[in-house]
């Protein structure tokens, strides 16, 4: 099909898919450039780029200080390979886009500079290494630039833009907050400085201004909450008022203020972006229309045949009936052509996931009709469809939970595990037997997929574990751990039985993809801080197992930590000695609690200003990024709660309703849907197939599982769908 | 004026002021009832009620276990007095309102039941006490009911209603969260239970299911963040993944979800309340209109004279010119009467704080014109008005900050303090000399008031301290502390010099009144929990000064705390031995950090289920009330940011603009305003008083200091204002 397509059609398809995926690449219009552009956007090319970006980032695991050391030659060769791939991708992009656009775009310049810097640094480091001179691989902190700046990671770039726009506003609030902090510190110095009080560790209390500022900053994060107050409180109860005032002003009011500022800017920025995107999308669709338009009476239109070719090019994998539905909606009056206004909607129409479920009879019913339709089989199926079936399995899950909690050394209980596994497998088999397998494993049947995967993974792991045990008499700890986790995960199923929980869970599942953006954002921040942290603190703190008799094993191998809270808390394994450890430390710092113990510990083994590293991380990660994350969750939930459908979704639904039947207009649950499908078929069987409905179609808008009605297209739709 | 007012007018005024203050009391319409109603709403009656509510609450300070012990007879007499006052207030209310409305209102029933319960409990306790039997004063926890249920504390009731409406939704999320917690605990039991690991304190690690649930619940609050993970992490780095997954799911996602649910409900509820209030207000205004209306042509109207009488009754303390302005707005075309539509607006018009500033010459200029207008005086005044004057004082404040930070044992520095005090006093005197004193100390000149109060308090305290020192050779610590705090507070002034900070500060100051609602809410929750806490934990933990040689002084007098984190952290003074201590403990629990140490400590000295008390407090205070507080701050800031003015505010502004002159339409700063007023007067002097503007009026809408334009009414307004 694509072979026969004209150049215009190809170009128009490129515009439409740009609009559909909100891309904004001003590509050249030559035949070769359009073909290159298709190649550039091909999913394989993109996956390869992502692979090399993550390979490049994960090099830090293998470079010194390494989790799994590889020779310098190997890592540097891989790095050069990655840089070559990035350069290739950039060159490819340069061929696709217009020259002046390419050179104006800062992200391309950024990538080139990053490649150059990395190569230079690699060369210098390599040469110095040959002469046995140690230098710093400073270019490693530019690696996240590739993750941010490649066109594929639009979401992460948008999040960074959002942060940049929030910065000025947040800076003012931050300065005011710092002012308040400095004022309170001054008061604390005056009030407590000359009392000669001591902390619980016997150190002087509130003597040094800078230390007071740090302690009170930590109090804002609540990490040293009652401890910092106790000496003053023990001296006089009235001094508690000072700390209460401090916490109210700084922790409650200022921290909420940060959230308010971040959330407000996030919303404002989101609105602007959406407005810009809508404009861009509209422009692209108009360009596509202009390429395909033909004159029809007084107006320009796109004829049905060209429109179909276009849709096939843009979305080759949607079903025929789905395409017909889209045509029905675009060509409302079945005039054989599509006008400009309807054409422009196409990008949005394509974006709405309409699931085409074909009502078809069970394959077993076709292969072995006599057996499948026998009385026993019917009874079995009606049993599975009964509410009681779900309840029975809920009870089984609860009993299973109790068995898991019990000790499993007793043989009965380990046998019980096999019984439960068998019961779960029977459940899945029964369901597949009753419902149509393709519907049961449909694209949006999240819970069915989840169940099946968990149970078969558990089966595999249990069998593997038993085999290992009987052959080598040895329990593999890793496999056993996985078995335990899978066993407990099976219990999650019970949530799906309760309607209210299901709604919340579905909302959570819906926001997972966007949450990944924050994963990316966090990854970038963590990478940069981990690399800096390794340079600053590498090897300063070491972990020795309890049995070790190395000197200062309890002080993490560093006498400077003697009697420190860090050593007393047994935090030695929290160090920056390799990339993985650094990530875990940064995670603990993100959680905030005890971060001052870390800051003091690492400052003790290096220099006092090292605390600035921890303060900087707190500001960037907790004050900015976590607040953006919270804003994002808030916004996502408000949107889910408001249940408003987009205009286009409403249009499609209306059309489906107009065309279809009113029967299934009300909201139905998935299982009910499957039920209904089955019983419709069932009725059909009973009535001897008088209605031509056995090949009926069910459309379903997939974007909002909790609120989307289901539509069943009956006979009337066939008029439109031919 | 009120004497001569007819019954109709009085009744209408009652309706209007009900609408103005959003009261919703269906009062009787008999002359006596209306008079009683006025008395009921009189500010003295309300203040008295509040006084007795707080007196009743503060009884807990004097009752056993007491901060300041009073004999049982005294406290019980005070309590009976309070209850009598409450009963009197209720009876008063019953006389004002309709009988069937009174008995239908749950809050009246609540108050009566609370009074009865308190009296019964008091009687039983008193009798048992006579026979030397100890019993529990359980009725003390009903005391906050008076704070919630008296009609005056509408805001607190609204907040409680909002919480009640949020509960069902939050319960579902909470159950799902608990399910997730139980699942993770089960996994933790299976993964770590049989490893025989030990915590940093040498206790068994993750052995008991209920303890795991508690530890992981604490981890959700991040209070035991790295500690709970360290033993497993030391055993194998991979186990960190379990805790990372746990924190992401429970701390980040579920806790944000709680905020989202609370905020969403808060907003929804707020919208409903506002809609209801608007409807109620409209109805009341129509009732008032119907009482006063007279026929005028085809429509019913209220005549100007009656309208004026009404406004004088409703708002006796607004200035004549302000009333004229309102009349101008209501009677737009100066027809001598007000139609229904304009009349209904009155309640909103009255609610907008319009400040009438009269441009008048400086009193000194009138008393000693020759001196005040001399060249030296003029130069002085122009100097004070110069930007440089503000800058000079900013520099002085900075230098002062440095001096405060320095040690003050050296005599020079203590002399410097006198110099700074003198400089600040000179500044205030100069400003009062330059600007008109009544304008300088205007109602909304927050910073001028703040400055003056702080500096005169500091002056008084310093003088007092010096006198004490020179006469008794003894530094009073309390006075010295106050001097220190005042000295530092003076520095806040510098914030006001920077425009951006001023905007943020003004927003903060604006939301203070509503924040007091949360003060009330917190007070209620704290009172209830403090009284329960005292019953549960009273006397179990004792604080001894470091020098004490009581046995187990380091274990807070309780051997059960030996080697516990509670004793090691020296938390002994955090106990429930009296009302004040309980409040401080609850405050520390609200801040969350180390709450598990408290929970474990108090569970060790009593019974393990005592932990439930702490968990319940965490759920009520942190998950619900703090989230409502954050929602409230978010909403308040969004409203401030959106800068949208209400319809009526816009109407007033338009009118002021229409009537006034265009000169001062743009936004001016307070000081600039004062400047302009001064220079206008100045010009006048120079020109020999040709313009009749010296008694001009300046109106200002006070509700939004950052965004409200200032209006100056020139000659043209006098046409309307006569």
Count of runs of 4 or more consecutive helical residues of chain A: 31
Question: Span between N and C termini of chain A?
Answer: 22 Å
Helix content of chain A: 55-70%
Structural class of chain A: mainly alpha
Gyration radius from CA atoms of chain A, angstroms: 32 Å
Oligomeric status: homodimer
- How much beta of chain A, percentage-wise? under 5%
- Give a short account of the largest sheet of chain A: 3 strands, antiparallel
Q: Which of globular, elongated, flat, extended, rod-shaped describes the shape of chain A?
A: globular
Q: Care to count the β-strands of chain A?
A: 6
- What's the average pLDDT of chain A? 81
Strands of the widest sheet of chain A, in order across it, are 1-2-3
Low-confidence stretches of chain A: 661-696, 703-722
Largest interface: A-B, 81 and 81 residues
Main location (chains A, B): membrane
Keywords (chains A, B): Membrane, Transmembrane, Transmembrane helix
GO molecular function (chains A, B): monoatomic ion channel activity
Membrane topology (chains A, B): Multi-pass membrane protein
Describe this structure in words.
The structure is a homodimer of 722-residue chains. With 722 residues, chain A is mainly alpha-helical. Chain A is 69% helix and 3% strand. Chain A contains 31 helices and six strands. A three-stranded antiparallel beta sheet of chain A has the order 1-2-3. Chain A has a three-stranded antiparallel beta sheet with strand order 4-5-6. The longest helix of chain A has 53 residues, at 240-292. The two termini of chain A are 22 Å apart. Mean pLDDT of chain A is 81; it is low at 661-696 and 703-722. Chains A, B: The chain crosses the membrane at residues 43-62, 68-88, 109-128, 170-189, 209-226, 238-266, 388-406, 412-434, 446-464, 507-532, 612-638. Chains A, B: This is Ion transport domain-containing protein. Chains A, B: GO terms for molecular function: monoatomic ion channel activity. Chains A, B: Its main location: membrane.
